Amino acid sequence: MRKTSYLFPLLGLALISFDSCTGSNTSTSTTETNANTVAETSAKEMALTEAQLEKARTSYASYCSGCHGEQMEAFTDRKWKHGNSAENLFAAIKHGYPDEGMPAFEQTFTDDEITGLVAYIQEGIQNVKQYDFSEETAATEVYTSEALSYRLDTVATGLEIPWGMAFLPNGDMLITDRNGAFYRLPKGNRQLQKIAGAPEVLAQGQGGLLDVELHPDFAKNNTIFLSYSAVKQEGDQTLSTTAVMRAKLEGNKLTGQKVIFEAQPWARTRHHYGSRLEFGRDGMLYVTVGDRGQHHENAQTIERAPGKVHRIKDDGTIPADNPYVNEKNAIASIWTIGNRNIQGMVIHPQTGAIWTNEHGPRGGDEVNIAEKGKNYGWPVISYGINYNGTVLTELTKKEGMEQPLWYWVPSIGPSGMAFVTGNRYKGWEGDLLVGSLRFQFLSKLKMDGNKIVSEEKLLKNIGRLRDVKMGPDGYIYVAVESPGTIYRVVPVE
Hints:
Blueprint: H1 37-45, H2 50-68, H3 86-95, H4 111-126, E1 138-144, E2 149-159, E3 162-167, E4 173-177, E5 182-185, E6 193-194, E7 209-214, H5 218-221, E8 223-234, E9 237-250, E10 253-262, E11 277-279, E12 285-289, H6 295-298, E13 308-312, E14 334-336, E15 342-347, E16 354-358, E17 365-369, E18 406-408, E19 414-419, E20 432-436, E21 442-448, E22 451-458, E23 465-470, E24 476-480, E25 484-492
Antiparallel strand pairs: 1-2, 2-25, 3-4, 4-5, 5-6, 7-8, 8-9, 9-10, 11-12, 12-13, 13-14, 15-16, 16-17, 17-18, 19-20, 20-21, 21-22, 23-24, 24-25
């Protein structure tokens, strides 16, 4: 089992290939100046006093962990895109990388405070330990919740960042890896099989191969849908957007690939793609698209696709009853507006309503029901603030904008979600499960009708929990990042 007890969390920031909840729309220049040389260089040899250490630890917890996690193991095997030297770290913290979701902190920290934070980070890097599941076949430790005891069985290893899961009628599992790989896991077999024909993706930042969804009539037509960060070149700029591909699964090969959705406009940013897929009871495909880190331009206008939930037919055409289908200049696929970055979506097993969760900035992660034409407020209202500590908005409520059913302060970095169905989990029936990227647990939200009444944290310190699904066998499956592992939650007496 994973057990963690580290003195230093790692500040991943935007120095590595980003994968958590980042996204300030800061436009600060990233030019490094000679004036910073002394501060940058001094971080190399700086030994922190107890007071400086506490300040650095507090700064990380307050300003950085919301996006990059409390535990440094999340970043042990990532590539540092802009370098991990003292100079690199100092420049990234001070000036940021706006296109990649990293805000600048030069208005938040003094040079001395940044220098102390850099020393703290580098000390943390030296103390890092990596997980190794190469010899592990099952997690045998028994967990105890308020209602029942359970253990984890290891179902699959050898992944990097398993992003989405779907179950075939025969019990096989389809798994997307954000690095672009697409796998089949045969029922009862721990050997992953590569599926050919997945789309080309921009596996940078939060982008890559994202969700997978079966057609409601998959048993007849073998059709699946993949969401991903599509990429194209315009001059010297590499642009990307959230896209959806439809294809047929024939054995371990995709055929008849067709792109049925592209969120317009394309952008240079590498974060806030969304993107979950769900077929509703109405037979329509619902697609979430993040605001791409450009919330003021995107989230509140119906003329741009980012920051929305979209609703399309299975061939990509637009349903005639979409809320903005007759509005001039509107993106006709829009179903809801004012969403920041939805990374969890599930259909309620009784009501058929579309439940979502989305990342807030520093605080203000939300659970909502995505209803036709509703405005969920981002960035006009929010229970969070900017990553650098500045106030994004003074408003938490406004007429015409929806209030969340539940929200988290501080942010947990919500990911995949599922309702507990069946009778295997006594006392959990009907509860809502949400993965946490930041705090690395499975949130179990107790339901009373459509109301969330309490939260219980399960699987603490399991790792960055990216997705959760109910399997056709009635068991809960969770996907954990780096090293990518799929677990089955098994009740025990």
